[in-house]
Amino acid sequence: MSEKEDIVQRAKLAEQAERYDDMAAAMKKVTETGAELTNEERNLLSVAYKNVVGARRSSWRVISSIEQKTEGSEKKQQMARDYREKVEKELRDICHDVLVWFAVICFLVFPPCRLQKNVATLLQYLFLDMSYCTQYFEFDGLLDRYLIPKATTPESKVFYLKMKGDYYRYLAEVATGDDRNSIVENSQSAYQEALDVAKSKMQPTHPIRLGLALNFSVFFYEILNSPDRACQLAKQAFDDAIAELDTLNEDSYKDSTLIMQLLRDNLTLWTTDNAGDEGDGGGEQDAPTGQ
Length: 291
Fold this sequence. Notes:
mainly alpha, Delta-Endotoxin, domain 1, 13 helices, 14-3-3 protein
């Protein structure tokens, strides 16, 4: 067993033990080899970070609700506020880690001469403040110039663009002010680019394309507060997939039909919400097994 295979096996073991922080750390090491990830490795990476960040997102929602309910008790409200801010920092750090580390790997594998001159500044940003490092990479466009172009298949490119959109969306959930505006723009841009590629290169029934439509529609509903656009995107994806169900192969049938069910569930929920009922933002999806 090679060193890479050993690390992947450790990630699988961590997943079975539901130790997702360990799983994420292992998959980060795999990514740092610089080689393009296999489908299995790509999915392990996504599952690991989805669970790591998902735990914080869930905690943030619970604590935010408690904070709102403690109005009238200044001490309790301050305690809830402090705890929410602690969870927010953890959530931001994880999302920044994903976005920045993608760029760092690309920097190491594809070091442009003009960027080599800025190594000292880069490392200073990297180790002193993760948010500054993220901004640095955004200005230089490393994520878009070097990581995503390295993907050799439409599936890989859409997967990574979707992942970029997802993690900016997670940041948008807790961001405020001008920072939130730029984060939202980054998320929408990544999702839209992924959707453009998916529509031109992938079957409507492909689970990665369906998962993208699902998460992008959640973005419209939750982040942009645009239920009409959310429903339009979800319905179009569902209808397109239904029209080409005969293109589904046995390997992806389970994944694709599961996501189609989530799309339909969200449409039902959002339609009900628009009629005046309260509800959450709907289900989302990150990486179907084996795709």
